[in-house]
Queue: 2 jobs
Job 1
Amino acid sequence: MANKVLIVGGVAGGASAAARLRRNDENAEIVIFERGEYISFANCGLPYYIGNVIEDRESLLVETPEDLNKRFNIDVRVNNEVLSIDKENKEVKVINHKTGETYKESYNKLILSPGSSPLKPPIPGIDAPNIFTIWNIPDTDAIKNYVDTKNIKKATVVGGGFIGLEMAENLKELGLEVSIVELEEQVMASIDYEMAQILHKNITTNGVDLRLNDGVKEFKHNNGETEITLNNGDKLEADIVILSIGVRPNSQLAEESGLELNKKGGIVVNDNMKTSDNDIYAVGDAVEVEDFVYGGKIMVPLAGPANKQGRIAANNIAGIEDTYKGTQGTSVAKVFDFTVSSTGVNEKTLKKLGKKYNEDYLIAYAHNNNHAGYYPGSSKINMKLIFRKKDGKILGVQAIGIDGVEKRVDVIATAMRYNGTVYDLSDLELAYAPPYGSAKDPVNMLGFLGENILQGKMDIIQWFEIDSLDEDKYTIVDVREEEERDLGFVANSINISVDDLRENIDMLDKNKTIVLYCATGIRAYVATRILLQKGFKKVKNLSGGYTTYSDAEFDINSVPLIGNDTELEKNKEPVDNIDLESIEKTTLNCSGLQCPGPIMKVYEKIKNMDNGEYLEVKASDPGFFADIASWCQRTGNTLMKTEKINKEFVVILKKGVEADNTDNTKMKNIMEKTDKSMVVFSGDLDKALASFIIANGAAAMGRKVTMFFTFWGLNILRKDEQVPVKKNLIEKMFGLMMPRGVNKLKLSKMNMGGMGSIMMKKIMKEKNVDSLESLIKQAQNNGVRMVACTMSMDLMGIKEEELIEGIDYAGVATFLSAAEKSDASLFI
Ligand code: FAD
């Protein structure tokens, strides 16, 4: 007798199971019940049909019931919903929605592939006619029809998962103003926060109003428009709302028939995809599966696993033993200019599992080109690799970039299937020619990095650790070129380019841990090797360099929106009434260059322009837009216009600040380095006076001044009165021998047992020259930064309590960092 197999659900898992079963068993009787009108449609393509990227609706219908019947002899019953399962009698009850008729159908084996449904929480007003979810063809038709027939201008997408982001992009493509509201601190839950920040930057630069850490409190529908009140009280107006906040498994049928479910409602299956009933199999979004990486049970609503599970269920039913080995969640999505892809476990999940960084797992960040840099059109792939500390086993990878992203993730996903380690990634021989890759592919590079970390060739520090380093124990060295620092830098870092490191090695204190960073980690690795071989024992490299650090620190409010001048308008008080299109401007084409290439070119160009002149820059690097905005802020230039034309970012800058009548001090300071820095080494009265007179003069000219007080210079900062502090004998002796405060300082020459000082103060008074005390106060009021050298304080036993208020305490790195922004550094 023919094996009679009924299948509930005719899309990913169901259709795949049916076709496989037929290929295995020509005699089986196969029936698919699909409650909707369509089977085997391309749910993954639905957002792109709404955005008109997929123009032909028919192309979404991968197979029709007729096709399946003709080729596979499958009885496909659309508009037929299975209402219940009678396990004892092995039959299902079905309703035909077209005729209203109900009937029973018996089975030998039953496959459930009922999928999942989008969540619709009970938020007040959620049933308004312009609030949609997107899951199937009718949903898509309804959205498309609404967009095409109503006069829609504003859309809000609630939920920043991959479907929400795809919808946001497609609605933006249609020319709508789009907002995304996401309850969590990040979009795209499958990746970690610092990686998601790359998406946040790109989403906002593409003109989307991204609201993170916020949810919807209420919808109010009024005349075709919905007012959305967010939890923080903000209100958004939307002509259409797309809800995309997650899914729940369609497991009621399984539950009602007494099949075993997990706490989340997922159908429990064994590795043959068999449920708790011997004759019922279940696959797809509705089942729980084994986490391939860490064991344990998970639910992963993705098409790839659903299709594979359908095939495995069919094999087992046909008598071919087959097992499902777990899901690792390999996924990919297009988010505006970027492709984002990941596989395996992310760090958030590891933390939830109680795993600890540097004990259980390690991380490596890399930013390598997708193909040879000299071949046109290369772009960076930002990657995060997570691997086990004890043996280097790969636990997961996340990648974001323009091209070649999913290829790398797929390679690593494959390696993971075979329990691959970072060493395996180094060994992989991957296809290479300049248009496609590099002789050392980004996958190999991640392997090398992981190996170096595991074998201790390179000690790394992560972006989340660097800000809390104790300056007394660490020196942070930025080994990028000087100009790159205009893009921003790690606080308290000094700049010695990797090429200058050998000559300046003596500036670094071997007793401290040296933390090196560059743009991505590669130059810093070279610098690490130099220092280690020159006898430095404690050297760390910032993983992923300034790129990872600044991505993680990115503030979504800092970027003006493309094609939307609102942010610019906020910043520009006195706007020239000019037509930016026709105005005379220098042009600069940076397309094809990647960060920091375009910024370096802008820097070179603008240096030779006159104040008030305009520069139009074109770039293809999606990071350029955010970079140029922060670069302008730092350098005091003005971002006048931003636009995205096809795939190019076009900006117009004006050299200097917007209004011609404003003072250009900030711009000059940064572009021409006009800060002043001073080492005040001497505690002599005349030298102290001279230093404060110069400092106040420079501050009055709008210069930023840093005074670094070290050794005897610290005495200038001492309070007059004795402060009760704990000191050892030598410290006490030092304290007694040194002058306490400005009134005890002596002249360097002609002091004559203190007479010289007294005479000097008298003459100063007569000639109306301010006293040292008042010069110090003026300096503080003028914003002069006074820094007491902590190392000298330690040596001389001077305690913080003994020094005047309003000063900073820091090491030599702080002085060096100030000095590199200065055109004059004085040693007094
Ligand atoms: P489905 O494919 O959803 O099929 C379930 C079917 O069962 C439904 O048609 C339903 O009507 C029917 N059904 C349910 N109950 C009954 C019943 N009692 N009787 C009869 N019929 C019933 N995944 C990716 O991997 N990549 C992507 O890019 C991607 N993009 C997506 C984009 C969108 C807009 C959507 C909605 C999903 C996307 N997915 C993507 C997810 C992927 O489509 C699902 O994971 C996959 O389709 C699940 O397969 P399934 O067979 O479990 O369920």
Job 2
Amino acid sequence: MILHYGETIAAVSTPRAAGGIAVIRISGECALNIADRIFIPVSTSKKPSEMDGYTCAYGRFVSLSGEQLDDGILTVFKAPRSYTGENVVELSCHGGIYVTERVLRSVYELGAYPASGGEFTERAFLNHKMTLTQAEAVMDIISAEGRGFHRRAVNVKDGSLYRMIKEQSDRLTAVLGEIGAWIDYPDEDIPGLENNALEERLTDIYTGLAGISSVYDNSRILRSGIDTVIAGKPNVGKSTLMNLLSGCERSIVTDEAGTTRDIVEESVRLGDIVLKLSDTAGLRSTDSIAEGAGIEKARKKILSADLIIAVFDNGDTLDDNDRQLIELCKKTEGIKSVACINKSDKENRLDKNIIEQCFDNVIYISAKTGSGIEELQNVLNKLFLTNSSIYNEITINERQKICLDKAASLINEALDNIKSGVTLDAVNIVLDEALNALLELNGERVTEAVTDEIFSHFCVGK
Ligand code: GDP
């Protein structure tokens, strides 16, 4: 990633597509001077550089040769009260690709550099407008597809994760300070440094960090969608259910058993969560090579899923294929499963008691009429979004989890050291490394290489 420290940067912050409005963002020392050259105010007599921060004006955007390119709104944010902490100007022009590029080209001709991906947010971080975890949450808010993940990302953007980490790093800093004092004055009695008290304090920090880290699996699922397999023997209504959930005819629905031979995938939003749905080949014993390969794929998919929606036919008696599915669901430890007894509009012939004994969540639906889908939505939202943990309302990413786990395991090592009588000087070194991991997580002690890597995943204009 090319960064332009100290330079003025510019980029289109809206998607590169025709739309009502496009926003070009300029940030840096020359932002206002550039704006003075390409904007002729109509609604005010003030040039952009004379305008107050947080004010806007209507006017015309012109090229360097004076050609009128468009009319629109210019908004001024003055340092340090702006997104990046620098002078920022936002030009809202008509959202055509050509017109936007012409206005942007004029901005570049006046000396601004094309911003790299995430460069505005990186400047915000470097200028202390936000912490590193808050900056990362900006991308999460942009990429959120469902309310569950979005709500958590907003909380992290508001600083909740930062504060949780800071609480633990402050506690660790206090311990380290006291150990440092003991190293300097070993004959002094420092309260809180008796082995038991020290172990208790470190165990508390460890528990706090492990609690935050435990959010990761749920964060991953909510961030990228819940990998969901719709499984069941042929003809139970898997494709009909998939079509109902995705609101369109994606899977092939026929009365002929064994029609879905391969895996059909679709992302759908159900209430506050996003399901990455796979409608698989019906699970049954077969002599057909093609169908057999599809069934094998389906089994593998089930074993790597986050959620299995096991579908049974209310109008049919339970057979060996159903029993195999029940066994498969029982075997898949760690994978959540919900039994959907489909065709509830038909007369009941299925032994429901057996299903109810084997699954914690059983729902009666009719994929054909849509009845019971709300109940399915409620159960899934409860399964993935309800958690009594105090850390439930945040999300963490892989980088953050690696830092957390590193810190936690070093604290554990320090605890082992204390128990086995290692001196506090040595314990101090291990704990100092744990603190470093937490400071890197929060961005308080982080290398340029790490921040560059983080922001390189951002989109241009952000
Ligand atoms: P799959 O093989 O499991 O994917 O099953 P399909 O979705 O292809 O459905 C098989 C047959 O069952 C089709 O004729 C569907 O119209 C029918 N079907 C699906 N869901 C229902 C339902 O809720 N009620 C009734 N009566 N028929 C259904």
